[in-house]
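Page 42, continued from yesterday. The earlier attempt failed because a stray header line got pasted into the input along with the sequence. Redoing it now with the clean sequence only.
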Amino acid sequence: MPDAIFDVYRRMYAYDQRPLNAVVEATDSAGRDWVEQRITYDAGYGQERVLAYLLLPRTARPPCQTVVNFPGDSGLALRSSKPLPAYSFDFIVKSGRAVLFPVFKSMYERGDGLTSTYPTETNSYRNT
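This time it went through. Structure tokens are written below.
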């Protein structure tokens, strides 16, 4: 597509860049292989706060490479991200990398009525 058309689409997804105002709300050091931090930060839209869990490996020195976990669509139906599905990324932490598990909009605790990954032709779906 021509650059001018691409730029129109790119601007549809632009957001105001502003500070994240990240806060570590809790730290759980009970795990054998990692320390879990519960973090919240300002979303890039509206006045929402995003919840995320950061798993920091005990065997690595910071800063660590970080893998961002994107959960499957089961997060649309479940209302809690806890317990974290550690079995799906424990091997990553054991390799010395950190894992960030964000609770994305419409998923888990941030459920908002979206229940399907099938797209609809609405602005609401596009913005989700």
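Notes: The chain has three helices and five strands.
Reminder to self: strip header lines before submitting.
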